[in-house]
User: Which sequence fits this backbone?
């Protein structure tokens, strides 16, 4: 099993940067792919970024390519999402999820979820 806790959200001005952390517990964390998703009020949860078991493969939603970077430190059991050049449309609750099988953009393929951290970008 994997337990996830997100942190690092907050209020930031447009053009600013923020780094989110997803801290995990569970001795098999390194065997899971991890994805970041976000959900704005009234909208469905959407894929943001994903990373493979060892961190060598990453995928990003088109809306964040070139601005966000996902990384992981399996020794620290933590996955990060570095967000730069933030835009008001990035405002959402950000969630991390763990996937036992493969990197995925699909929410239903994730086995575990954190409770989310709020990111608000003002213009």
Assistant:
């Amino acid at each position: 099993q994997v337990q996830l806790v997100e942190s690092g959200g907050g209020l930031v001005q447009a053009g600013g940067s923020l780094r989110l952390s997803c801290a995990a517990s569970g001795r098999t964390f390194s065997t899971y792919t991890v994805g970041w998703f976000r959900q704005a009020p009234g909208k469905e949860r959407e894929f943001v970024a994903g990373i493979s078991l060892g961190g060598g493969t990453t995928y990003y939603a088109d809306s964040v390519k070139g601005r966000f970077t996902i990384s992981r430190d399996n020794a620290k059991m933590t996955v990060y999402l570095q967000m730069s050049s933030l835009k008001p449309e990035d405002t959402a609750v950000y969630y991390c999820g763990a996937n036992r099988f493969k990197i995925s953009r699909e929410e239903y393929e994730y086995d575990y979820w954190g409770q989310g951290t709020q990111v608000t970008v003002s213009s």
